[in-house]
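User: I'm new to structure prediction. If I give you an amino acid sequence, what do you actually give back? Let's try with this one:
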Amino acid sequence: MAKGGPRNPMPKLPPEVRIRSFDEVALGFSEEQAIDEAERCLDCKNKPCVSGCPVNIDIPGFIKLIREGDPVAAARVIKRTNALPAICGRVCPQKEQCEKVCVLSKKGEAVAIGALERFAADREAELGSSGEQFRPENPELSKYSVAVVGSGPAGLTAASDLARMGYSVTIFEALHKTGGVLRYGIPEFRLPRHILDREVEYVRSLGVKILTDVVIGKAVGVKDLLREGFEAVFIGTGAGTPKFLGIPGENLSGIYSGNEWLTRINLMRAHESDYATPIKVPKRACVIGAGNTAMDCARTALRLGAREVTIVYRRGRAEMPARAEEIENAEEEGVKFQLLTNPKRFLGDQRGAVRAIECLKMELGEPDESGRRRPIPVPGSEFQIECDIVIVALGQNPNPLIRMTTPELKTEPWGGIIIDPRTGMTSIPGVFAGGDVVTGEATVIAAMGAGKVAAAGINNFIREKHNLDR
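Assistant: Good question. You get back a string of structure tokens that encode the predicted 3D arrangement of the chain. For your 470 residues, that looks like this:
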């Protein structure tokens, strides 16, 4: 293909097949498709795509290697700055980041950077090890230990970067499985579990020790870790506190938070008969919200057997925060969209179960602080949507356990840990934080970027503390 030609579409399972299973929807590029797509890259000298990547992957560099037929070398280039390429290639919002600033996007479609990243990572796994044995940059740093609390994207990234530098790193994970939001928040049809497990094993191969079923903030506190010999602690516990609407009827049976709904399925396997996790199989489901979590909830409800699933969103389509690909997939699978609609109250039956949502029609006014047009209620426009379950997917606030058990830790009124954005340092010397526990619910790649900032901050902190040469 000539440079700058038309973009290769991602092959996908047909909608009628995919709604009957949790199999991965996107099938990935073949080698021929990947090379063809890589040929579109203009190999720009100023590399705008790299500046658009929160973890600064050498995008033209790895694409060039794919074009030359060496995906293993391409994956190696990616892993210099990103330990989770197969995950990022699947779930990152590339169209809002690296692909958004691709030169080709000015007149047409950007290079499919995410699909090529996924291809390189998957091909490396298929072909086996690159043969390159891992060696830390400074083995003498192994006498300094760092604790990482949480094995989500921020924690895994901070841990892998620190291990590469040479530090001894231990991850403490509260759940019985690793991955954090990557496991409990993202369905298998977007991120298969064997892919997640493979990426975690790569981080482990760098020398990172991972301990599960350890809840930091209960028996062991953050400051206890410092007293026990860790030079620094990174807090990457994510955002696990769901946001609700605060309207009448929200305590009715059959109303879930998006976090609870996805955790019951993704982590606790409620959709599998071998597991005893209870969940209500809906006939008519309504999902409140229009982000990626809302799309995941809606598409999961379909796969559980719902006859009808409706997204209820108070703004219009242009303002929906979900990835365009996820909105498209949801539509293809039969999810309905009730836009410019805001719930007013939930209505229950005689058994205390939800039976309908009373809603108001909305219209859009001037943009608010988010840059999106503010929804304004239309007086007298009330109407009802019948449903037997409701999933409220309006985002999550930071997990509160550590801030509640660490009074010296300064936090925002809404719960986010306050850090120095240049280093990731909190109000406690030696304690760093990053990802959703700082910002509230955000993207996987934003959390990874925060993990990298904190890893660099921790390195500088330890070197200054021990007067080590830079």
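You can read the tokens as a compact description of the fold. Here is one thing that stands out. The mean pLDDT is 93.
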